[in-house]
Write a structure and sequence with these properties.
By secondary structure, the chain is α+β, with helices and mostly antiparallel strands. It is built from 10 helices and 20 strands. The protein starts with a strand and ends in a 6-residue tail after the last helix.
Length: 372
């Protein structure tokens, strides 16, 4: 497994990026944080696009930055996908790919242009010019071109930010196959938590120019000691489940979580497929007794594992263990007091079926690339 070592600094007039971390790169690693926290700048530092960078940057045994000495970008064996596609407008799509292939890194993975064309469904676009393509098509070509260059690491800077949700979902379906199909890890910049939930294996959290945490995405987002970089309104966790049967009469799909299950609005996914669900802390209510006569359909047996009251507010954050996965709940401190909650206490977690965002999952299942 590849790993990235960062101990680098970039001083600017308005802000400073100072990143110190060493982390593995399994599959897709999300570089996540609020707008303006330095994600894109750090990605550019890793790519060698910020000449004033100092310190250490290394991928595995390859030292790209030592002090002020920097390996040129074209020798770093990386692929870079920007927010805009940056295709060569005077070349056809086929020639864009051939251009990258001619400059492919000899030490990179064994990737062939025709395999990439097939994987990204580009055959019908090869004779076209970039100006005739839709936004989604342009980004597919941009990703394919980066892969044809045979990089050891693929850097992606918010590649879906200009697309609508339907096109985002489809492009994510292509992106998530890259590590397994082509053997290339991805460092993926985003401030969209739904993209993290769909794509990321690991996450690196940034705030104010610094890396504040990194690790497996489910574990890291469940931590109560980290600031809510998504905002309190969006803070929550990601759980993994298996698609079960759909009840046609009420258009509800069952998601199995170990020995328990959830029901959510209909998903057009095959039975047995693993999926991730993002559940916001604010959407999880707690009870100590089985409720009756309520509309909430999802009632999960859980155990309180951690409590973090917020003395300056009315609220408290609770971390729960459910089938060896973590949920977060945000309740009032008054409820915390009334329910006499403490670590180790069994509780019931109540989650509305409509609380779980299924748009990206449902659209991606169709993998419809037409009119992108």
């Amino acid at each position: 497994m590849s790993h990235l070592l960062l101990d680098c600094t970039l001083n600017r007039r308005k802000n400073t990026i100072a990143a110190q971390a060493r982390f593995d790169l399994p599959g897709i690693t999300a570089l996540f944080g609020p707008n303006g926290c330095g994600k894109t700048t750090l990605l550019r530092m890793i790519a060698g696009l910020e000449p004033a960078t100092s310190g250490t940057i290394a991928l595995n045994e390859n030292k790209w930055q030592t002090g002020k000495k920097s390996t040129p970008t074209h020798k770093r064996n990386i692929g870079f996908v920007f927010q805009d596609a940056r295709l060569f407008e005077h070349l056809t799509i086929a020639d864009n790919l051939k251009f990258a292939e001619k400059r492919a890194h000899r030490s990179g993975p064994d990737i062939h242009r025709h395999d990439v064309i097939t994987a990204f469904a580009l055959a019908e676009l090869l004779d076209k010019k970039p100006a005739t393509l839709s936004g989604g098509e342009r980004q597919r070509v941009a990703i394919a071109r980066a892969l044809v260059s045979r990089p050891q690491l693929l850097l992606m800077d918010e590649p879906l930010s200009a697309l609508d949700i339907k096109r985002r979902a489809v492009i994510m379906g292509f992106i998530e196959t890259i590590p397994e199909k082509f053997g290339i890890p991805i460092l993926y910049v985003t401030h969209a938590i739904d993209e993290v939930a769909r794509l990321a294996d690991n996450i690196v959290l940034m705030d104010s120019g610094h890396i504040i945490a990194h690790g497996p995405v489910e574990e890291t987002l469940a931590r109560l000691d980290l600031p809510p970089l998504t905002g309190r309104f969006e803070a929550g966790t990601i759980i993994t489940g298996t698609v079960g049967q759909t009840e046609p009469q009420f258009s509800l799909t069952t998601i199995h979580l170990g020995n328990q299950s959830l029901t959510i609005p209909h998903l057009d996914l095959p039975v047995g497929q693993q999926i991730r669900l993002r559940i916001r802390a604010r959407d999880v209510a707690l009870a100590t007794k089985e409720p009756t006569g309520i509309s909430i359909r999802n009632i999960l047996r859980a155990t309180v594992s951690e409590i973090m009251p917020e003395p300056d507010t009315a609220f408290a954050e609770i971390r729960l263990d459910v089938e060896n996965q973590s949920l977060r709940s945000r309740i009032t401190r008054a409820s915390l007091h009334d329910l006499e909650l403490q670590p180790g206490k069994p509780v019931l977690a109540l989650i509305k079926s409509i609380a779980m965002d299924r748009r990206l999952l449902a659209t991606a299942a169709k993998n419809n690339i037409n009119h992108m």
